[in-house]
Structures are given as structure tokens and as C-alpha cells.
Design goal:
binds NADP nicotinamide-adenine-dinucleotide phosphate; 24% helix; alpha/beta; Quinone Oxidoreductase, Chain A, domain 1; 340 residues; Rossmann fold; 27% strand
Length: 340
């Protein structure tokens, strides 16, 4: 039976927030798999801030999506045809299907391409969150780059989001004082009550400086930065001697039309003999299994939470993606494409 595929392709390079006209909706028959290939039906897509960067024609850690190409996206799906010894029909897998209903191509190997996931450990959406790419980012970014020690103060922005929620929960497990920064009272409440952070500062209330003084009275030892811009600049005024700043992302700058704003207060790094270091999750691909084992056990023991915000329907992709840049997602943003 010939299946029809449906895709979202990049039609134009966006200026500022992506518009509907930056996308092209296409339909085409799905080709049959060749030797070593599989066909995956997309069940759920991961909508990530990084997707905005991949739409720009600029050098980065991964090549830009070309005009006319299917938009790149991570996701989970079901193997519906297999000519690879690695997978059987019915396997539930995680990989990068792109924004489309079906994916066909080489099955990949142990560290690249598709991987089987175990739904007994956690539900499907958690495999796009705590046990997926954002969770791996949080775990390795915090432990390897942030190197928190028990008793230290760890501050994280985007605290109610996918990466931020896991950073804070891992830091708690490490015995740190954990403070979040998030937008709005509802998100801050969730971070403290449900995730067990010691405090959360609502940056939209305009009291970040005062909040940092109140909730980080002994300064900041590790700052895990997801947002960049003015928040990073303000945090730099509160760092401790030998502080570690993990540059994970800068979502406040991704749609800028006037140039990325760098930190004016960077000399704090000199005064405090501190360091600021970037990280890219893919560098840790060979160690994902360690983080999955550790955090999977915490999830099962009820010591960790994975909150997702699931939008239904491939058609809603353009509007759903923009939710990230407007703070409208509450938890890891996922797009349900087909039922399990
Ligand atoms: N380096 C890596 O390998 C890697 C991997 C994954 C993700 N990342 C980065 O990690 C960061 C978080 O990603 P995520 O997937 O966890 O997204 P997320 O936090 O689940 O969602 C994005 C959140 O960012 C906040 N935000 C949006 N615009 C903002 C602004 N102008 N100022 C401050 N906050 C703003 C909003 O929360 P509020 O309502 O709280 O404002 C929004 O809900 C992003 O910068 C992303 O690029 C990096």
C-alpha cells in the first residue's frame, strides 16, 4: 500500500519570529525502504528553540536547513517497515523524523540515527523531555560543565521549561541550593511546589536584581543560562569566586532583528576568576545511556518529574513552534502527530 507523506518545508528564511509564509506544506508518496533502511511513522515531535537557529543561513554546530527542505525536528515514532536487522516492525524509536508524518532512510547505529525506547521506563512524551534531548542537555551541561558541589547555589533560567526543569531537579539531587528564574507566578509556583526548587524569581515582575539578592544571599556558584540577554547580564553581578556559567542557550536573542546583545558585565568573570563555557548536547551522545539510567530510576522512584505541554496535530506546527518564543509553553513543548 502506498502511503502519502505530509511535510512542512522551509519556504523562506524568517526575519524575527517565523511567519506562516516561511513554511510550505507539501504532500508526496512515501518511497519504499531499501536494504538497511526503515520507515518510521511520526508519533510525537519535539519542538525546540534551536529550530529557530537552524532556519538561519549562518554557520553553527549543525548545518542550516536548506530552503525547500523538510524542517528538521527530533521526535519519537513507530517502525512500520524494516529492512534493517536493528529494528522490527512495531518498535518504538527516538530520532529525528523532521516535521512530517513518515520518515524513510538508513536506520543508523548505536550513537546516531534511530534508538529504541522503553515505554515501561517512562511514557512517550517523557522520552522527548527528561529522557530525551533536553534532559541530556540538562544532565551533562550541569554535571560536566557546571560541576556543582553539595551546598553550592545553582541558578537556572528558563526554569519551568524542558532543560531548566531538569537542571534544577538534578542539582537538588546533588545537594545544592536551587533557584529558578521563570516568567509569571504560575510557572514560578510550579517550579517551587512541584519540582522542589528552593525559590523561583519571576523575571517578568521586573524585580530580578532584588530577587537574586533575596534568594541567592550567598551569591551564585553555578548559573545555567538558557536565555542570555539582560538576565545573563544581571546574574553576572551576583556570581561568586570561581563561579561556573553554563552557556546552554540564549532564547531571548533568537528572533532578534537588531543583533545579539552580549553581556556588558563580563568583567565580573575577571574579578571573580570565573568561567563561562558553552555546551552542545550532541558531544555527550556516547554517554546518554548513563543519564537515562540515572534519571529513569529517579522518575520511577517518584524523585523526579517530567512535565510536557502537548499540542495536537501536525497542522498546528507553525503556531506551536512560536509558543516557545512567547513563553506560552508550560513544560517541554511536544506536537502529537499520531496516536501511539
Ligand atoms: N546547548 C544545547 O545543546 C541545547 C540543547 C537543548 C536546548 N538548548 C537551549 O536551552 C534553552 C531552553 O530550551 P528548552 O527546550 O528547555 O525550551 P523551554 O524552556 O521549554 O521553552 C522556552 C522558554 O523560554 C522562555 N523564554 C522565551 N523567550 C524568552 C525571553 N525573551 N526571555 C527569557 N525567557 C524567555 C519561556 O519561558 P518563560 O515563560 O519562563 O519566559 C519559554 O517557555 C534554549 O535556549 C535552547 O536553545 C540548548
Amino acid at each position: 500500500m502506498e502511503l502519502m507523506n505530509e511535510q512542512f518545508r522551509l519556504a523562506a528564511r524568517p526575519v524575527g519570529l517565523p511567519k506562516d509564509s516561511d513554511w510550505q506544506r507539501t504532500e508526496e508518496p512515501l518511497r519504499a525502504p531499501e536494504d538497511g533502511e526503515i520507515v518510521v511513522q511520526t508519533l510525537m515531535l519535539s519542538l525546540d528553540p534551536a529550530m529557530r537557529g537552524w532556519m538561519n543561513d549562518a554557520p553553527s554546530y549543525i548545518k542550516p536547513v536548506g530552503l525547500g527542505e523538510v524542517m528538521r525536528a527530533g521526535g519519537v515514532g513507530k517502525v512500520i517497515a524494516s529492512r534493517s536487522p536493528r529494528f522490527a516492525v512495531g518498535d518504538i524509536v527516538s530520532g529525528a523524523p523532521g516535521v512530517q508524518r513518515y520518515w524513510v532512510g538508513p536506520a543508523g547505529d548505536k550513537y546516531g540515527g534511530w534508538q529504541k525506547i522503553d515505554l515501561r521506563l517512562a511514557p512517550l512524551s517523557a522520552w522527548l523531555n527528561v529522557l530525551g534531548m533536553p534532559g541530556m542537555t540538562a544532565y551533562f551541561g550541569l554535571t560536566e560543565v557546571g560541576q556543582p558541589k553539595a551546598g553550592e547555589t545553582v541558578l537556572v533560567s528558563g526554569a519551568a521549561g524542558a532543560v531548566g526543569m531538569t537542571v534544577g531537579q538534578v542539582a537538588r539531587q546533588r545537594g545544592c541550593r536551587v533557584v529558578g528564574i521563570a516568567g509569571g507566578p504560575e510557572k514560578c509556583d510550579f517550579v517551587v511546589r512541584e519540582l522542589g526548587f528552593d525559590a523561583c524569581i519571576d523575571y517578568k515582575a521586573g524585580q530580578l536584581r532584588e530577587g537574586l539578592k533575596q534568594h541567592c544571599p550567598n551569591g551564585v556558584d553555578v548559573y545555567f543560562d538558557n536565555v542570555g540577554g539582560d538576565i545573563l547580564d544581571t546574574v553576572l553581578t551576583r556570581i561568586n569566586m570561581k563561579a561556573r556559567i553554563v552557556i546552554c542557550g540564549a532564547i531571548s536573542q533568537y528572533n532578534t532583528t537588531t543583533g545579539v546583545k552580549g553581556p556588558a558585565n563580563y568583567l565580573a568573570l575577571l574579578v571573580k576568576r570565573a568561567r563561562m563555557e558553552g555546551m552542545v548536547v550532541f558531544d555527550y551522545a556516547e554517554r546518554y545511556h548513563e543519564a537515562i539510567a540515572t534519571m529513569g530510576a529517579w522518575l520511577q522512584a517518584g524523585q523526579m518529574r517530567s512535565k510536557e505541554d502537548i499540542v495536537d496535530g501536525l497542522d498546528n506546527f507553525p503556531a506551536a513552534l512560536n509558543m516557545l518564543f512567547e513563553g506560552k509553553n508550560f513544560g517541554k513543548l511536544c506536537l502529537q502527530v499520531a496516536p501511539l
